[in-house]
Each structure stands twice: as C-alpha cells, then as structure tokens.
Amino acid sequence: MSVIISMMYPVVAIVLFMLGILLVSTHYRLSVDTENKKYREYLWITGFKKGEKLPYKQIIDIHIKHITQSIEYGFVSRVRGRKKVYSAAIEIDGNQSLFVGEHRSEKKLLSKVNKIAEAVQTEVYKSYE
C-alpha cells in the first residue's frame, strides 16, 4: 500500500505542474482586422485561440477611463485597499465596447493605446478629465 502511495506523488506533481502552466499561460486577447472589418475577442490558452471572428461596421473611437478597484488580501485577517486603474476600450458600431487593456500607469496605457489608434485610424478620448 505504501508503495502505491509513494508512486502517486510524481503523478500528482506532474498533474499540478501541467495545471499551473495552463493557468499561467491563459489570457484574454483582442485582434482587429481592419481590411476585412472583423474583430476577434479570444482566450489564448498555451498557443490555442478560443473565440470566433465577428464583423463590425465602424470603429468609432478608443476611450480611456479610470476605475477605483477595491482589493482584499488575506484569509484570516483581511487587509483592504483601493487603487486607481486606467482602462481602455474600443467603441464599435455605436453601442459595443471591446476591452483593450488596463494599467495602473496612465502613461503606459496611453503608449499602448496610441499605437492601436494609429493602426485603426481613430482618436483616443479620456473620459476622466
């Protein structure tokens, strides 16, 4: 019986390692094809893309807003905090927003968003000034 249990440790370790890689490598992405007027919001999971391409009529603008997020840390004793985060979204067809990204630094988010705005030929608006 103890031999079986000792043989299970490497198997459990490998399974947990693979789950860790899966969790670390999974993230949200957005791609916009301006020539064919299609966009794709998808999950990128270790190189595989899960999401479908959808058509759009017009990219209206990119807007940035700031959000105050509440954070709680700890299991037994709770530590609460707040932080300001800047969030960017592309507005398409007048009523739909596509999440571009967020960052704690306005300057870093603006550098990313300005490249996107230049590629899709639209303006960037700040909704917090």
Structure explained in plain terms:
- The chain has two domains: 1-55, no CATH class; 57-129.
- It is 30% helix and 48% strand.
- It contains two helices and eight strands.
- It is an alpha+beta fold and 129 residues long.
- The protein has helices spanning 2-25, 106-120, and strands at residues 26-33, 38-45, 48-50, 53-55, 59-73, 79-92, 96-103, 124-126.
List keywords for this structure.
129 residues, alpha+beta, 2 domains, 8 strands, 30% helix, 48% strand
Unreliable parts:
none
How much helix is in the residues? 25-40%
Number of folding domains?
2
Q: Strand share of the residues?
A: over 45%
Note the run of SSEs as H and E. HEEEEEEEHE
Quick summary of this structure?
By secondary structure, the chain is an alpha+beta fold.
Topology of helices and strands:
Blueprint lengths: L1 H24 E8 L4 E8 L2 E3 L2 E3 L3 E15 L5 E14 L3 E8 L2 H15 L3 E3 L3
Parallel strand pairs: 5-8
Antiparallel strand pairs: 1-2, 2-3, 2-4, 5-6, 6-7
